[in-house]
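can u do me a favor
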């Protein structure tokens, strides 16, 4: 098993950022709930522990705690903000409110560099966000840095355990990444050797052990996650993997042909044109959630039928999913009682309910950028790796209201013009997602002296890191002008184009 850094999650909005920074340092880490036990950590081959920040106060009733044995010296520990308070608290120190919250930059005066601050200047900028601080150090600890406000801005036991009041994981702490790397390389003593090539090698071995001599199936959507997952599994078990690509009739222009051309020669690929089935079930359906439900159901049905046809000894026993780490984290922390359902983000390729298949999720521990690097290692073409995400229900949620073949055709043309111009202007990679929407609005226009009554197409392009919030992309006017004039000239029934300048919230990225 690979040596792992455990990040204990105390609810900080930066917990995932800590994980990203550790991974960027080529060290493998995983996020654990705060009530993890030392036995669990040992079983995962944990070699060092980072305690995240969090919104609570250690004295709050119900404040998230820690199994004290984790911080008693068995492991090197770095406590960040709340993590530092908690360590001080359970080891016999004292934490108290500051009176006023400190939020923003501070100057850190380093009193003792040691391993953690090696290479840093005597004074460094550091980002603060806290209401409490360590007032009395636990026995055996000493202060190693201060700020104007705080005599204990960092603490150390002189060996392997450290606490920092500031946030080394955020970009506002310019040398923060060096502090984290010092902890990893100098205190814990791990080497930064977790590379895409190392991941591929380990994943292939794991997949072989998991699947044995069996067979697997995979729904290939053409998106980056399923493409990388399928390629990885194919590398491990060759043509004992069968990929099923289902053309729902809701794909973008040329998408089906591209997927078949790219993966057909490399994987055992079954291409199913199920567009008639999907479109006839969707005829006249207006409600977006109903559309999603129908598509989800039909997809599973088609997939089951295809899986049943795969002629292998004993049938396929495993199903490969492109689940990635943020999906795993999100599904663990999702609180269905407190969060309202905005949309059902059903990822096409869900597990058929009555199939007895075992899940294989080779990317379940990777962030998106890591998936792309692994994909590059597996020689997957760049334009697949850098594709914008595309919703499972496809163009069905981009034709507002009832859909039919004619409207889908209009949308496909407009959408491909938009994407083509974005690429030509070098804007495709600068936005997180861009697409056209066919609205149910028809408006009056004039073309060649004649009155027209045509469709209104909306263009949407957004910037975002996590798709939870998003801003509309400030595309140059001349680019918008080119797209608009090409659409009204080249797509017969469209006479008007608008650009969506709404952020999320209050809008969402998709229109339905
Ligand atoms: P919204 O529209 O909620 O979308 O701001 C956020 C991200 O999720 C994608 N999306 C979906 N993905 N099935 C999916 O697999 C869906 O039903 C679905 N709806 C939205 C959307 O494209 C964006 O990336």
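np, heres the sequence
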């Amino acid at each position: 098993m690979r040596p792992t850094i455990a990040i204990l999650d105390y609810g900080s909005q930066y917990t995932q950022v800590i994980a990203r920074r550790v991974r960027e340092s080529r060290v493998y880490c995983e996020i654990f709930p705060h009530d993890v036990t030392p036995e669990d950590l040992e079983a995962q081959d944990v070699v060092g522990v980072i305690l995240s920040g969090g919104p609570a106060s250690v004295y709050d009733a119900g404040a998230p705690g820690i199994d004290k044995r984790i911080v008693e010296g068995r492991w090197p520990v770095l406590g960040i903000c709340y993590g530092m308070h908690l360590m001080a608290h359970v080891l016999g120190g004292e934490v108290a409110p500051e009176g006023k919250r400190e939020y923003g930059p501070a100057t850190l005066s380093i009193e003792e560099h040691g391993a953690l601050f090696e290479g840093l200047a005597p004074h460094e900028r550091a980002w603060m966000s806290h209401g409490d601080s360590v007032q009395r150090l636990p026995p055996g600890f000493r202060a190693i840095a201060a700020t104007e406000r705080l005599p204990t801005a960092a603490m150390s036991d002189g060996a392997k355990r450290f606490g920092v009041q500031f946030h080394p994981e955020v970009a506002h702490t310019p040398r923060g990444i060096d502090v984290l790397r010092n902890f990893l390389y100098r205190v814990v003593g791990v080497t930064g050797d977790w590379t895409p090539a190392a991941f591929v090698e380990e994943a292939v071995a794991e997949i072989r052990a998991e699947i044995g001599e069996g067979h697997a199936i995979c729904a290939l959507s053409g998106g980056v996650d399923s493409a990388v997952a399928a390629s990885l599994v194919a590398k491990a078990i060759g043509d004992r993997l069968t990929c099923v690509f289902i053309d729902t009739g809701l794909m973008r222009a040329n998408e089906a042909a591209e997927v078949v051309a790219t993966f057909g020669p490399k994987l055992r690929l079954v291409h199913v044109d199920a567009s008639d089935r999907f479109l006839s079930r969707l005829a006249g359906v207006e409600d977006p959630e109903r559309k999603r439900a129908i598509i989800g159901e039909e997809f599973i049905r088609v997939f089951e039928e295809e899986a049943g046809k795969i002629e292998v000894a004993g049938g396929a026993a495993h199903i490969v999913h492109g689940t990635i780490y943020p999906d795993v984290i999100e599904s663990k922390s999702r609180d269905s009682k407190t969060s309202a359902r905005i949309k059902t983000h059903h990822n096409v390729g869900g597990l058929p309910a009555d199939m007895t298949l075992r899940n294989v999720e080779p990317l379940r521990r990777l962030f998106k950028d890591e998936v792309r690097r692994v994909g590059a290692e597996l020689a997957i073409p760049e334009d697949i790796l850098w594709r914008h995400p595309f919703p499972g229900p496809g163009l069905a949620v981009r034709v507002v209201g009832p859909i039919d073949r004619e409207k889908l055709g209009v949308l496909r043309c407009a959408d491909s013009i938009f994407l083509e111009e974005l690429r030509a202007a070098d804007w495709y990679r600068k936005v997180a997602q861009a697409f056209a929407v066919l609205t149910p609005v028809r408006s009056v226009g004039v073309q060649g002296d004649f009155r027209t009554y045509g469709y209104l197409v909306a263009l949407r392009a957004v910037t975002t890191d996590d798709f939870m919030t998003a801003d509309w992309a400030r595309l140059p006017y001349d680019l918008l002008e080119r797209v608009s004039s090409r659409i009204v000239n080249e797509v017969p029934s469209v006479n008007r184009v608008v650009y969506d300048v709404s952020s999320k919230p209050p809008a969402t990225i998709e229109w339905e």
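Confidence is low (pLDDT under 50) at residues 334-339, 346-352. hope that helps!!
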